Amino acid sequence: MIEIEQLRYVRLGTRELPAAIDFAQRILGLQLIEKTEDQAAFRSDFRDHTLVYVKGDPAEQAIAFELRSIETLERATALLQQSGYAVTRGDAQGALRRKVKAFVSFKDKSGNGIELVVRPQTSGWRYFPARDAGITGLEAVALRSKGNGADEALWSKLFNGRVSDWVGDAAFIRFDDAHHRLTLHPSDRAGVLAIEYAVESVDQLMQSQYFLQAAQIRIVHGPGRRPTSEQMFLTFAGPDDVLFSYVAEGRRIANEAAHRPRQFPRQTLSFCSWGSESDIPEFTAGERA
């Protein structure tokens, strides 16, 4: 089993790089730390960056997880290949663009891009956002999954992911004491569904609701509270069919031995105990999106 240290960043392709940069700074509230002709990187916390927009096809996406050492990366590569995954070793130029010592990439069974990185850079400077949204860091990523059982097995059998809860077949997976860092939502297509950023408190989340409404950004779910993680959330539309969420509060799972994953029915109240509805297929009560 391969130990994942933490979620590090998300890379998203976009054909409209200037518009994506404007959204990440002015709307989302991240700090632009680097911009070239073909990519822009943004900070949200101690990590050098947690979001990168790359000029190109919006279907080209990847989420990155940190491994502890080169030896762990080699073991992960071998295990993935033995399990039938095609793994690509990153070259020096790719590592430089990602600001990591080394990395490999592969796709899960649904076709979602995954990167495993070693020694990603950490910033020694205080995070200073473009807008004071109260962001404290990258919290989690939600993926669309065409074969949820196979994708769930990847994280829970080859890696150290543990299922915290299910809503229908949607799996909430943790790698540390947070309720989840990754969610897999049954869908008829692959791709990043939502990127979640933690905010300081419910006050910041509600302030952002009014800010987003004034900026005419479509709120697609919430404000609400998740019965699974007990997080308050606010989910809104971003560029290129990717959603973003602010989350606050939430339960931690410190006692691994005592925790048992719960099975929630696939219905509206299982995604929001306040009854907030959404027209996003993965957040509705249908059997599949």
The percent range for helix content is 10-25%
* Low-confidence runs: none
For CATH, the homologous superfamily of the largest domain is named as: 2,3-Dihydroxybiphenyl 1,2-Dioxygenase, domain 1
Question: CATH topology of the largest domain, which one?
Answer: 2,3-Dihydroxybiphenyl 1,2-Dioxygenase, domain 1
End-to-end C-alpha gap:
31 Å
Mean pLDDT: 94
Q: If strands are numbered along the chain, what order do they take across the biggest sheet?
A: 14-15-16-13-9-12-11-10-17
Counting helices, strands and paired strands, the structural category is alpha/beta
What's the alpha carbon Rg, rounded to whole Å? Answer: 18 Å
- Our count of helices gives 6
Give the CATH class of the largest domain: Alpha Beta
Describe what you observe in this structure:
It is a single chain. With 289 residues, the chain is an alpha/beta fold. It folds into two domains: 6-118, 2,3-Dihydroxybiphenyl 1,2-Dioxygenase, domain 1 (Roll), CATH 3.10.180.10; 135-283, 2,3-Dihydroxybiphenyl 1,2-Dioxygenase, domain 1 (Roll), CATH 3.10.180. It is 21% helix and 36% strand. The chain contains six helices and 17 strands. The protein has helices spanning 17-28, 70-82, 92-98, 148-158, 202-214, 268-271; strands spanning 6-14, 31-35, 39-43, 51-55, 61-67, 88-89, 102-107, 113-118, 135-145, 162-167, 170-174, 182-186, 191-199, 219-225, 231-237, 243-249, 262-264. The strands form two sheets. A nine-stranded mixed β-sheet has the order 14-15-16-13-9-12-11-10-17, covered by helices on one side. It has an eight-stranded mixed β-sheet with strand order 2-3-4-1-5-8-7-6, sandwiched between helices. The longest helix is centred in the first third of the chain and has 13 residues, at 70-82. The mean pLDDT is 94.
